Amino acid sequence: MERLAAYFTDALRGLLEGAGGAHNHSKHHYNITYGSHHPRDDHHHHHQNDTLAAFQLLQDMSPYIKFGHFTANQAILEAVVHERRVHIVDYDIMEGVQWASLMQALASDKTGPPGPHLRITALSRTGTGRRSIATVQETGRRLTAFAASLGQPFTFHQCRLDPDETFKPSSLKLVRGEALVLNCMLNLPHLSYRAPDSIASFLSGAKELKPRLVTLVEEEVGSSVGGFVGRFMDSLHHYSAVFDSLEAGFPMQGRARALVERVFLGPRIVGSLARVYRTGEEVEERGSWGEWLGAAGLRGVPMSFANHCQAKLLLGLFNDGYRVEELGPNKLVLDWKSRRLLSAS
């Protein structure tokens, strides 16, 4: 826990220094291809090989990523059964690793009728420069090649957000007869931080677009009403559980854990505390995004028994400290001991 304390100490030091490190870090995006980059923060710029290696290690050391991907994909498969055309709009596609297993599942049944045509539209962000758009294009090429290797009918499109990263449903290219799914993975360690207004604009589109399903995965950091101190303690307890789970699963892999911490967790802690300090009140008012969707009038779709069993089987591959919690009919939560880490709904 010394490393965790060091990250929080650095984050607090940045806050005390005003417009220093924490303030700047909170504006940076960290993803599995590129670290943040700023002329004054070169020591936090991670080489592409480091970020890719850290992402793979995080997948191997923890169910953190696969839990959300597999739960969302199983819900999608169940929602679009017998459909001939499926259109998924992905809020933050990154490297597109979520969709490889979905394609394999769609293409796996060789005895029945051909699988549906899959179309994925990835949102790209003009406000973060060419790098974001180029990354999405490369993801599309990679997914197209993978689908071809499986014989899975597939097309890939991009939809650019406005410069302020807001989403307009009218910008989507929709085709009659497609089963539409909105997929939203939010603020997990390997993903970029996205502003609440941007997320709200995407999820608000669900009411206008009337999709077959909205899949949502988000961190369970807590929404304390105790002011900055309460929110700070929520963040501390959350990341303490994450660090503890990684150490318990791979106690002898100190260098591997250190890479994951340096590339993903450390920057997330710094940015998280900076946002808590400046804008934590809005979290108290909004609650979780799942609650926000419910308040907006969307009906929860119950998680199937198969999805619950799949989650338990996944956790069986990792340390005994993980467990699945069913929080209402449409929400599965990944816990580490007594602490909720993330939820899928």
Task: Describe the secondary structure blueprint for this structure.
Blueprint: H1 2-16, H2 21-25, H3 48-61, H4 64-79, E1 85-90, H5 98-107, E2 117-125, H6 130-150, E3 154-161, E4 179-186, H7 196-209, E5 213-219, H8 227-249, H9 254-286, H10 289-295, H11 305-315, E6 322-326, E7 332-336, E8 339-344
Parallel strand pairs: 1-2, 1-4, 2-3, 4-5
Antiparallel strand pairs: 5-8, 6-7, 7-8
Task: Explain what this protein looks like in three dimensions.
The chain is α/β, with parallel strands linked by helices and 345 residues long. It has one domain (2-344). It is built from 11 helices and 8 strands. It has an 8-stranded mixed β-sheet with strand order 3-2-1-4-5-8-7-6, with helices on both faces. α1 (2-16) crosses α9, α3 crosses α9 and α4 runs parallel beside α5. The longest helix is centred in the C-terminal third of the chain and has 33 residues, at 254-286. The radius of gyration is 20 Å and the shape is globular. The relative contact order is 0.16.
Features:
transcription regulation, transcription, globular, DELLA protein
Content of β-strand:
15-25%
In this structure, how is the largest beta sheet organized?
8 strands, mixed
Quote the distance from N terminus to C terminus. Answer: 31 Å
Work out the number of β strands: 8
Radius of gyration: 20 Å
Q: Provide the low-confidence segments as ranges.
A: 19-46
Give the class from helix and strand content and strand pairing.
alpha/beta
Number of domains: 1
What's the helix-strand series?
Answer: HHHHEHEHEEHEHHHHEEE
- Mean pLDDT over the residues: 82
How would you write the strand order of the largest sheet?
Answer: 3-2-1-4-5-8-7-6
Overall body shape: globular
Helix count, DSSP H or I runs of 4 or more residues: 11
Helical content class: 40-55%
